[in-house]
Write a structure and sequence with these properties.
The protein has one domain: DksA, coiled-coil domain (Four Helix Bundle (Hemerythrin (Met), subunit A)), CATH 1.20.120. It is built from 4 helices and no strands. It is globular. The mean pLDDT is 85. The N and C termini lie far apart (36 Å). It is mainly alpha-helical. It binds zinc ion (ZN). Zinc ion binds at residues 82, 84-85, 87, 102-103, 105-106.
Protein backbone atom coordinates (compact mmCIF):
# COMPACT_ATOMS: atom_id res chain seq x y z
CA UNK A 1 0.00 0.00 0.00
CA UNK A 2 1.40 3.36 -1.03
CA UNK A 3 0.82 6.10 1.49
CA UNK A 4 0.50 8.91 -1.01
CA UNK A 5 -1.75 11.96 -0.99
CA UNK A 6 -4.55 10.00 -2.66
CA UNK A 7 -4.51 7.53 0.21
CA UNK A 8 -4.66 10.30 2.81
CA UNK A 9 -7.29 12.20 0.87
CA UNK A 10 -9.49 9.08 0.90
CA UNK A 11 -8.84 8.64 4.64
CA UNK A 12 -9.72 12.27 5.34
CA UNK A 13 -12.89 12.16 3.24
CA UNK A 14 -13.93 9.01 5.07
CA UNK A 15 -13.26 10.72 8.40
CA UNK A 16 -15.23 13.79 7.28
CA UNK A 17 -18.25 11.60 6.44
CA UNK A 18 -18.06 9.97 9.88
CA UNK A 19 -17.83 13.34 11.62
CA UNK A 20 -20.73 14.79 9.62
CA UNK A 21 -22.80 11.72 10.54
CA UNK A 22 -21.90 12.20 14.22
CA UNK A 23 -22.91 15.86 14.05
CA UNK A 24 -26.18 14.94 12.35
CA UNK A 25 -26.98 12.55 15.21
CA UNK A 26 -26.03 15.16 17.82
CA UNK A 27 -28.65 17.52 16.37
CA UNK A 28 -28.49 21.15 15.29
CA UNK A 29 -28.93 22.86 18.70
CA UNK A 30 -27.62 20.60 21.47
CA UNK A 31 -27.35 23.37 24.06
CA UNK A 32 -30.90 24.71 23.70
CA UNK A 33 -32.41 21.66 25.40
CA UNK A 34 -34.64 21.22 22.36
CA UNK A 35 -34.04 19.64 18.99
CA UNK A 36 -34.12 16.12 20.36
CA UNK A 37 -37.79 15.55 19.55
CA UNK A 38 -36.94 14.16 16.13
CA UNK A 39 -34.25 11.86 17.50
CA UNK A 40 -34.84 8.41 16.00
CA UNK A 41 -34.26 6.64 19.32
CA UNK A 42 -36.62 7.25 22.24
CA UNK A 43 -33.99 6.31 24.81
CA UNK A 44 -30.73 7.95 25.78
CA UNK A 45 -32.17 11.45 26.09
CA UNK A 46 -31.43 11.91 29.80
CA UNK A 47 -29.21 14.73 31.04
CA UNK A 48 -26.05 12.65 31.04
CA UNK A 49 -26.59 11.58 27.44
CA UNK A 50 -27.20 15.19 26.40
CA UNK A 51 -24.03 16.42 28.13
CA UNK A 52 -22.07 13.62 26.51
CA UNK A 53 -23.67 14.55 23.20
CA UNK A 54 -22.45 18.14 23.51
CA UNK A 55 -18.90 16.95 24.24
CA UNK A 56 -19.01 14.59 21.28
CA UNK A 57 -20.35 17.37 19.09
CA UNK A 58 -17.65 19.87 20.12
CA UNK A 59 -14.97 17.28 19.57
CA UNK A 60 -16.43 16.33 16.19
CA UNK A 61 -16.65 19.99 15.13
CA UNK A 62 -13.02 20.60 16.05
CA UNK A 63 -11.89 17.47 14.23
CA UNK A 64 -14.01 18.32 11.21
CA UNK A 65 -12.26 21.69 11.04
CA UNK A 66 -8.85 20.00 11.13
CA UNK A 67 -9.95 17.48 8.47
CA UNK A 68 -11.21 20.26 6.16
CA UNK A 69 -7.92 22.10 6.53
CA UNK A 70 -5.94 18.94 5.79
CA UNK A 71 -8.02 18.38 2.63
CA UNK A 72 -7.28 21.98 1.59
CA UNK A 73 -3.56 21.33 2.14
CA UNK A 74 -3.77 18.28 -0.13
CA UNK A 75 -5.40 20.42 -2.86
CA UNK A 76 -2.62 22.99 -2.45
CA UNK A 77 0.11 20.35 -2.42
CA UNK A 78 1.19 21.33 1.08
CA UNK A 79 -0.05 18.21 2.80
CA UNK A 80 2.20 16.33 5.22
CA UNK A 81 4.57 19.23 5.80
CA UNK A 82 5.08 20.37 9.38
CA UNK A 83 3.66 23.85 9.84
CA UNK A 84 6.35 24.69 12.35
CA UNK A 85 9.68 23.38 11.04
CA UNK A 86 8.73 22.65 7.40
CA UNK A 87 9.95 19.05 7.57
CA UNK A 88 7.92 16.20 6.12
CA UNK A 89 5.67 14.65 8.74
CA UNK A 90 6.31 10.95 9.27
CA UNK A 91 3.89 8.90 7.14
CA UNK A 92 3.30 6.54 10.07
CA UNK A 93 2.14 9.53 12.13
CA UNK A 94 -0.15 10.70 9.32
CA UNK A 95 -1.59 7.23 9.09
CA UNK A 96 -2.72 7.52 12.74
CA UNK A 97 -3.56 11.25 12.60
CA UNK A 98 -4.23 12.10 8.93
CA UNK A 99 -5.02 15.73 9.83
CA UNK A 100 -1.78 16.26 11.78
CA UNK A 101 -0.35 19.76 11.26
CA UNK A 102 2.96 19.21 13.02
CA UNK A 103 5.68 16.59 12.99
CA UNK A 104 6.08 14.52 16.15
CA UNK A 105 8.96 16.66 17.47
CA UNK A 106 7.04 19.89 17.08
CA UNK A 107 3.81 18.39 18.47
CA UNK A 108 5.73 17.31 21.57
CA UNK A 109 7.28 20.77 21.83
CA UNK A 110 3.83 22.36 21.64
CA UNK A 111 2.22 20.05 24.18
CA UNK A 112 5.01 20.91 26.65
CA UNK A 113 4.29 24.58 26.07
ZN1 LIG B 1 8.11 20.07 12.90
Amino acid sequence: MTLNNDYFKARLEELREELLAELAVAGPHPESGHGYSTHPADHGTDAFEQTAGIAVRRNAERLLYEVERALTRIEENRYGICRDCGQLIDRARLKVIPYARYCLDCANKHSKG
